[in-house]
Each structure stands twice: as C-alpha cells, then as structure tokens.
Design a protein that fits this description.
about 30% helix, about 425 residues, five-stranded antiparallel β-sheet, 25 strands, ten-stranded mixed β-sheet, 3 domains, Cathepsin D, subunit A, domain 1, Serine Threonine Protein Phosphatase 5, Tetratricopeptide repeat, 13 helices
C-alpha cells in the first residue's frame, strides 16, 4: 500500500506582483518575486536579509508577510498585512491584494480562528471573483463553507503540564498508532503530519459522540480524488496526559478509509493542527511518541510551512531540494517537478514501473521510475535510500516541491524530532 494521507483542497494562484509600483530596483524585485512564486522560502529569506536595506518599507512588509507565515510567525504575518493595507493600499494591485487575503485567512487557520478565515474567504469571493476561474471560485466557496460552518467553534486549546511519553506503536502498515480518548471512549488513531486536519470515520465519530456539523465539504486526498465529507468537533480529546479542547475532525464515509484488498480500515487520524500545538514531537523508532514539556531551542532552521503542510530543505549531491514530509507515508518519493529538472538522469538510471497509490477514496495506478541508492543530507545527517520512486503524475499538493519524505527516512534513526516552534526537524 502506498502512503495514505488527507490534504486540504486549497487554491494556488500566481502571485502577480506589481513590481514597478512597489520598488524601484526592478531586478531585485523580480528575483525576490520569483523566489516567492516558487515557494523557495529559504532562498527568499537569504536574499531578503541580504538586500532589505535596498527595499522600500512597503516592499519589506510585503515579503515579511510571506516569510513570517512560512516560518510559523502567523500573528506577526497578519500584523504586517494590516499595516500594509492601512499604509500602502495604493502600492498593491488587485491580484496582490487577493493573495494577501489568502495569506491572512491561512494565518487565522494556524491559530484556529475559523470565523475570521471564513470572513476573509467571503471577501475574496465578493470583491475578486473576476480574477478567478470557475474552478478557483468553487474552491474558495468550499473553504468558505467549511470554515464558516465552524464559526461557533472556539479556538483549539492544549493543556500540557509535563513531558509525555505516549505508548504508541507501528502497525503492520508502519503507521504510527497512538491511543486517544474522547468522551471516555478510547481508540487508536494514526499520528500523521500529512493530514491537514484530523480525520475520523462516520461510525467512529458516532461511537465517540462527536458533535456533528451538518455541512458537506469537498476534501481532496493524495490520490486526487475529491470526497464529500462532513465536519465534527470533539469538545475534549485526550492524548496521553495532554488535553485538547475544541478539536475539529473531517468526518469521512467509512468506505473511503477502508481498503478491503488488504483488510485495513483507518478509524481516525490525528493531523497537523494537533501536532502543531504540541510544539515539539519526538517520533521514536520503537513506535513511541515523546512530547517534551518545553520545546528545545535550535538556531538552524530547515523547515517551513506551505499552508498547513510542513516542508523540509535537504541536499542530494549538489542539489538543494524541498520535500514535504508525511509520517503516514510508508515510503518517500520524488515528484514530477524533480523529474522535469533531472529527466536525463532519471531516464538513464531509473527503472520504469507501475504502482498502486492509496489514499482516501481508494487506490489508483500510477507510472513511476525507480531510482536506487539515492543520497540525502538533512542537517548533519548523511544517508542513502536504497530505492525511491519518481512519480510521473501531476499532483496539485506537491507541485512546487521535489518530493515527500516518508518513514523509510525516519526509520534510519532512533528518533525523528519535529520542532514546530523553531521550525526544524532533526534526528537522533
């Protein structure tokens, strides 16, 4: 079975910067904007720091908005958006304003202000629909409805007073299973960074007496199937000795998370919004999960956020690459972006094959090349993957990145450390 993960159906638009209005240094502005559009936030940060003295205040605010967001400073990002809108509205074209509103909504989601996010999506539809095609309009309508239905839900809260060791384990499919309790009912859910929202089956939501919200939403899976789902809220969710309040779940039909050919059903998934609030998570090779009381401090960053998806910078030979990472994926993979940039080498060294890709909505057959002994360096750690597939399929959720890190990387070490506060991953 290939990786199983759930992702939000978000909208990707060109940034479309009005360079001549905002900055006189056209070449510099073009360079910064190209890095922003390609979502290479490490390179953008380096160029911005090096050249910020050459930028106008409006331009500095503009790039600080996206850098703050990428590196987890969402409230700072929204503060900069407010200042830019207040002081320099004449420096922004309509497409820039639309993208800033999208960034603002995303920031609200990071600190669980669903109504505010829905209001911003509504403003986009009201004022900027002329800039959108029918598919983008439908997507904005979907996320507006999704978060609008959560208007009465208070922000998620975490209560943690000490370090916690979760008695988790890896199941037969190498998914990390951790015990969770809702309304006195305990079950084991997958612990999955690839899930943009926590997820539960209809039968399990009923069993755990979650508060169902009668709002249908379209969710896209890793197979690119769109599944009609609902939402529910757990007033309290207990994971070990950590209490979470107001946890939102996507509720999916049981059949969409059932894989009869391998006799496997996913009852629930603990996704990114819960993990993010933990601050720092250690995923141990033996299957246990350790959450320290306080996050550790490390200066060197190698991770940023794209929406609700963490992205890691790594190196392979002379190449600097950007990978999403997914603790629910059994194996890593290289994207079609990587294939296009290294087509000659992939065709020369790789073996063409067909494979099954699994996700919510079922399995699909995909074409891929298989590469062998693929070198990687993450931080100070150097290693090779015995094999890694190169997908030939277009996936909207990985269009900007070189691949996805899975458990075949993480299992090479005793523990994977994910620090959401200081934005890095590390291994021990």
């Amino acid at each position: 079975m290939s990786n199983i993960k759930l992702l939000f159906f978000f909208i990707f638009l060109s940034t479309g910067v009005a360079q001549a209005q905002r900055i006189s240094n056209q070449m510099l502005d073009n360079k910064l904007n190209d890095l922003l559009e390609s979502k290479d936030f490490f390179a953008l940060k380096m160029e911005y720091v090096k050249n910020q003295s050459k930028l106008s205040e409006a331009c500095k605010l503009y790039y600080e908005i996206y850098l703050s967001q990428a590196f987890g400073q969402n409230e700072t990002s929204n503060q900069a958006i407010d200042i830019l809108f207040q002081k320099y509205p004449d420096k922004l074209n309509d497409l820039e304003t639309l993208k800033l509103l999208e960034a603002q909504a995303n920031n609200f989601l990071h600190y669980y202000e669903y109504q505010q996010a829905a209001t911003v999506y509504g403003a986009i539809l009201t004022n900027y629909s002329r800039l959108l095609d029918s598919s983008s309009i439908e997507s904005y309508q979907n996320v507006k409805s999704l978060f609008g239905s959560l208007a009465a839900v208070p922000p998620q809260k975490m209560h943690k007073s000490k370090e916690v060791l979760l008695p988790s384990y890896r199941n037969a499919f190498n998914h990390m299973m951790t015990p969770v309790t809702v309304n006195g009912i305990q079950e084991e859910f997958i612990f999955d960074t690839g899930a943009n929202l926590s997820t539960i089956t209809e039968s399990q939501a009923k069993k755990m007496q979650l508060k169902l919200i009668d709002q249908s939403v379209a969710i896209a899976s890793s197979t690119q199937n769109v599944v009609q789902s609902k939402l529910a809220v757990a007033d309290s969710l207990i994971i070990g000795d950590i209490l979470f309040e107001n946890v939102v779940f996507i509720v999916m039909p049981d059949a969409q998370l059932t894989f009869p050919d391998i006799n496997y059903t996913i009852k629930g998934i603990i996704g990114f919004p819960v993990m993010d609030q933990m601050g720092e998570v250690h995923l141990l090779k033996n299957g246990n999960i350790f959450i320290p009381k306080e996050v550790s401090n490390k200066q060197e960053q190698n991770m940023f956020f794209e929406g609700l998806t963490p992205v890691v910078q790594l190196h392979s030979k002379k190449n600097t690459l950007l990978f999403t990472f997914d603790t629910g994926a059994r194996t890593s993979e290289l994207s079609i972006k990587y294939y296009r940039a290294h087509k000659i080498e992939v065709k020369r060294k790789g073996e063409m094959q067909k494979n099954q890709r699994g996700g919510a909505g079922g399995n699909v057959e995909v074409n891929e090349y298989m590469l062998f002994n693929f070198p990687m360096t993450i931080g100070v750690h150097q290693f090779s993957l015995e094999k890694i597939p190169v997908t030939m399929e277009e996936y909207w959720f990985n269009a900007y990145f070189d691949g996805n890190l899975g458990q075949d990387v993480f299992m090479k070490f005793n523990s994977l450390i994910i620090n959401f506060e200081n934005m890095y991953i590390d291994f021990e």
